[in-house]
User: Fold PORR domain-containing protein from Populus trichocarpa.
Amino acid sequence: MRTYIIKSLFKHPFTFSVTIRSKTTSAQYVASRARDATFEKLMDKYKNFVKVIAIQDLILSNPNKTPPCISLDFLSKLSQKLHLNRGAPSFLRKYPHIFHIFYDPAKSQAFCRLTDTALEISRKEEEAVNASLPLVVDRLVRLLFMSTSKSLPLRAVFKVWRELGLPDDFEDSVIVKNPNLFRLCDGNEPRTHVLKLVGEFPDNHFTAAVENWRVTECCREDCSVDRMDMRYSFKHVYPPGMRLSKTFRAKAKEWQSLPYLGPYEDLMEKKKKTKAGLKGLEKRAVAIVHEFLSLTVEKMVEVEKISHFRNCFGIDMNIRDLFLDHPGMFYLSTKGKRHTVFLREAYERGRLIDPNPVYDVRRKLLDLVFLGRHDMLTSTSRSVEIDKSEESGSENENVD
Assistant:
């Protein structure tokens, strides 16, 4: 019976979602999801991209050096924490377009710095983040507004500062510089802080991303869906090859038409624990995590990070199972020993459909990760040609 239910997930994920959780372990439920080769290929490289970012941040946090660098001995001590299974030197050598290892005879040890290309990408990302500060402020305001108390633990915001496109000094550059919107208060525990929204906003001030999609869909000339049917609908894009039975389609249609409170609407009182009430709460939870992902730069986030907001958003259910229950909206990957969720509708062929400047810059670094050791011979020969031309140019100057 258990084996049949797991296999049936590919046909009827919505129908069997509640049954599966009661019959199988959480790990089995994750393993039985429908896979998407495009997202899996992206995450296969992205898991190393996360490590590259961690090492890059360590290098750039050492401003006393010009250019910034870090010793291989120090990095090797962090290998386990950074999940560099074969050691720091081996990992760094996999990405010669990003990292350059050199030996300092004065200190008798090896160091690592960013290549000129990687350093330029880092500089451009900082510029893109600073240029988008008004958008960043809006994202943070929206995040706070979705909270039932209009406040969030600062440590939770720290978890997703990069995902939201916040500058690394956002406490000063965003929070302190906008006292009309934000206030930092002491938390219930020692050395904890709570970020509160102090600005006043009228009802219906914020529009969720899914509402914008509904308007766009309804305005299309070839729109064949009844506008009343679109009132509570979300966009669904299922994994390639996933078979959708008539039963599943009927259940999905029923769920799409289910009324719910949007992510920016106040939940005045908890729904009664009836079947309809629980479904309404689930759909509101889906709307909140959908909007959360829409606010991120790359329309993706680690499940562990978003789970820190679960209580603040009034979500009483397991967020990971929420993603698994709605495979047409979310895709969950387990690559790199972490669970990462994507907003499926935002991606096409492994890239954002509607990119933004910060994403564009980060994608350049990800492309270098995809590149690995390739083209190094070409790059080296170009460097040699440049060096020779510079040498000949200097010789000619000396002759003159």
